[in-house]
Write a structure and sequence with these properties.
Elements (H helix, E strand, L loop, with lengths): L10 E3 L3 E3 L2 E6 L11 E2 L3 E7 L12 H8 L3 E9 L6 E10 L8 E2 L2 H18 L2 H12 L13 E10 L2 E9 L15 H18 L5 E10 L5 E2 L20 E2 L2 E4 L1 H8 L1 E3 L5 H4 L2 E2 L5 E2 L4 E2 L9 H9 L7 H13 L1 E2 L6
Helix pairs in contact: 3-4
């Protein structure tokens, strides 16, 4: 059947890790047990006077021209967010749904392809389960990768992951995020209690992906940064530059500083260490071409036959299963979700 099988022209998958926006609150580290009453972190605006610091073209390097340019101030209006002087700790909280049906398309216009794809994913699940992927997702929750810049330079970071059932926390795992590995998913933590918590969270996420139970997690991170310190919500992308009167606009939800759900999801799925060069760069977010926009590079090139589409087609259409590590990558991309149909020539 695979000899005549072609990729469906309509092929889409819903994401199976579904985070909410992450909201910011401020309080005292020693008052973490009463964090429900912490005050929201607001977005404020300030105007600053900058100086000329960009790289100059050769014709602009004349001393007189540079002196003249410096006399014209670089005025900017920017958003910023910071802890109040009475608070030394940032609280970041969001929820995460783990959905079943991994590998089941939300849209597919070819029944034969759909059946073969489901059989392929089921073969993987029967042989490996979702434990390896779930362990990496669990570690990214526990080590606070979703905090992004807020994690850098923090004195202490505590992450609480609660499994919510019937509107209340059934089980809560609390870990010291800074004690966990950041780049190596194979590194073991010397604390047996932390390992036990990670194993339990891994098992729960794997069950959610396998559709064995409903999984809703509430993640709360406490980051001790220092009173009055600046914090870093998401920065908005202003598409119409003509309308913007600020050089930096930060994201808020109902007046509360926040991180986009897309950015939270990107951090959770930063588990791909199966590409060439991973030993040097470390894990990257699961993307079909291994795209890292901050570096302007794709680490999974079609010419190297390491991209998602090449691996998937060989696996489903040609019955050539890739190496186990690349199978993990393909399944992780299906969990990520997206539109993967093949356009007609």
């Amino acid at each position: 059947m695979s000899n005549d099988l072609k990729t469906a022209s309509v092929l889409a998958f819903e994401r199976k890790l579904d985070p909410s926006d992450a909201r910011f609150h401020a309080g005292s580290w020693n008052d973490r047990a009463h964090a429900e009453g912490w005050k929201p972190v607001a977005i404020n605006t300030k105007s600053v006077r900058g100086t000329i610091s960009n790289r100059l073209k050769t014709k602009e390097q004349d001393p007189a021209k540079l002196d003249a340019a410096i006399q014209n101030p670089n005025l900017q209006t920017v958003d910023f967010a910071a802890l109040p002087e009475t608070a030394d700790t940032l609280k970041v909280s969001f929820t995460l749904r783990v959905l079943g049906g991994t590998g089941t398309p939300s849209a597919c216009n070819d029944a034969d392809y759909r059946n073969k794809l489901l059989a392929t994913v089921q073969t993987y699940a029967n042989a490996n389960g979702f434990t390896e992927l779930a362990r990496r997702y669990a570690l990214n929750l526990a080590n606070g990768r979703f905090l992004w810049r807020n994690r850098i330079g923090a004195e202490r970071v505590e992450v609480q992951v609660a499994h919510w059932v019937d509107g209340q926390a059934k089980t809560t795992w609390t870990v010291d995020a800074l004690s966990l590995p950041w780049r190596d998913f194979n590194a073991s933590n010397p604390d047996p209690d932390t390992l036990t918590k990670l194993d339990a969270l891994t098992h729960l996420i794997a069950d959610g992906l396998a559709d064995k139970q409903h999984v809703l997690l509430r993640i709360t991170a406490f980051v001790r940064m220092g009173a009055g310190q600046e914090v870093f919500p998401s920065q908005e992308l202003i598409l119409d530059r003509g309308r913007g009167d600020k050089s930096k606009t930060l994201y808020d939800v109902d007046g509360i500083a926040a991180i986009h759900s897309q950015k939270i999801g990107n951090a959770i799925r930063t588990i791909d260490t199966w590409y060439e060069g991973a030993d040097e760069l470390g894990p990257i977010a699961v993307e079909p071409y291994g795209s890292v926009t901050t570096q302007g590079k794709a680490y999974r090139q079609p010419k190297q036959k390491s991209d998602f589409y090449t691996l998937l087609d060989h696996w489903v259409l040609k019955d050539k299963a890739p190496e186990l590590e690349q199978q993990h990558f393909v399944i992780a991309t299906l969990i990520r979700g997206g539109v993967f149909g093949e356009k007609a020539d």
